[in-house]
């Protein structure tokens, strides 16, 4: 019997190359996150961040999307604890930078920061910080990808839901509803599968913008907003036009019209604004 003296090649377990690649990506994600994050606010070390991102983008090539996925997994396993917020934010920005053409990723990160993470916070100021970061990343993403309906829609939701639902943020961003309307209109005009939803959302945002203007006594701005909202806001448009004209009879007629169609909370708003207008400046 002939015995071979050639060393037998060790057969790798099935799936080992994939596991090796996953391990390498995880290690690289950890290295990049540590270089960018490190518990330091992103704005505190922009020069180092730029250098790392430039090097990473050049050497990773086609693997950038995979590394971005690994960074996401690492950020999620670390948890959204407030104490790690700078690391989380840095990881999100790193992901967006490594995969700059992935509009869906950027839109998802805006939603994550504006809706998901704030919902886990009991402290109001911490909740606001997440939302502020969402607006910053969202505006940056909308500027980079003006043709993305997904980014426009998620940023609009951040303005409309997150900002207007908080008195402090509403004061910081007084035209949140207007910005939401503009973004929903952009998403509507871009079309796509969600074009009809964006059109409806633009009307909702226009209604919110108009109500805010009525509350502020800015009747021309309210009229402009209600006109932008289309035929569905016609009764509100007539109410704003009556207020702007100062015609008491027209104001009362509009109040009567809205009392039949508006929600109870809106009827209270209409009655209060009409009473203030009919009293006049010295009332």
Architecture overview:
By secondary structure, the chain is mainly alpha-helical. The protein has a domain at 28-99. 75% of the residues lie in helices and 0% in strands. The chain contains 14 helices and no strands. It has helices at 16-36, 46-60, 64-78, 85-98, 103-119, 124-144, 149-163, 167-172, 176-190, 195-216, 219-228, 234-245, 248-261, 264-279. Helix 9 runs antiparallel to helix 10 (195-216). The chain is elongated.
How would you sum up this structure in a few lines?
This protein has helices at about 15-35, 45-60, 65-80, 85-100, 105-120, 125-145, 150-165, 165-170, 175-190, 195-215, 220-230, 235-245, 250-260, 265-280. It has about 280 residues and is mostly helical.
What order do the helices and strands come in, and which of them pair?
Blueprint: H1 16-36, H2 46-60, H3 64-78, H4 85-98, H5 103-119, H6 124-144, H7 149-163, H8 167-172, H9 176-190, H10 195-216, H11 219-228, H12 234-245, H13 248-261, H14 264-279
Helix pairs in contact: 1-3, 1-4, 3-4, 5-6, 5-7, 6-7, 7-9, 9-10, 10-11, 11-12, 12-13, 13-14
């Amino acid at each position: 019997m002939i015995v071979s003296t050639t060393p037998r090649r060790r057969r790798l377990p099935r799936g080992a190359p994939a596991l090796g690649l996953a391990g390498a990506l995880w290690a690289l994600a950890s290295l990049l996150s540590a270089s960018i994050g490190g518990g330091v606010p992103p704005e505190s070390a922009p020069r180092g961040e730029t250098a790392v991102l430039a090097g990473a983008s050049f050497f990773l090539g086609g693997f950038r999307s995979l590394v971005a996925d690994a960074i996401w997994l690492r950020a999620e396993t670390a948890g959204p604890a407030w104490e790690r917020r700078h690391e989380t934010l840095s990881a999100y920005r790193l992901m967006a930078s490594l995969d700059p053409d992935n509009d869906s990723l950027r839109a998802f990160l805006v939603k994550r920061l504006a809706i998901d993470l704030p919902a886990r916070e009991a402290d109001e100021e911490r909740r606001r910080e997440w939302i502020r970061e969402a607006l910053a990343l969202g505006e940056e993403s909308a500027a980079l990808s003006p043709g993305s309906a997904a980014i426009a829609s998620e940023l609009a939701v951040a303005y409309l839901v997150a900002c207007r639902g908080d008195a402090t943020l509403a004061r910081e961003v007084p035209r949140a509803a207007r910005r939401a309307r503009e973004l929903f209109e952009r998403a509507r005009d871009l079309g796509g599968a969600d074009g009809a939803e964006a059109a409806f959302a633009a009307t909702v945002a226009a209604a919110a913008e108009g109500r805010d203007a009525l509350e502020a006594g800015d009747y021309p701005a309210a009229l402009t907003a209600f006109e932008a909202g289309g035929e569905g806001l016609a009764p509100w448009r007539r109410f704003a036009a009556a207020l702007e004209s100062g015609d008491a009879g027209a104001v009362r007629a509009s109040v009567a019209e809205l009392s039949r169609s508006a929600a109870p909370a809106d009827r209270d708003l209409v009655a209060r604004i009409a009473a203030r207008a009919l009293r006049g400046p010295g009332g």
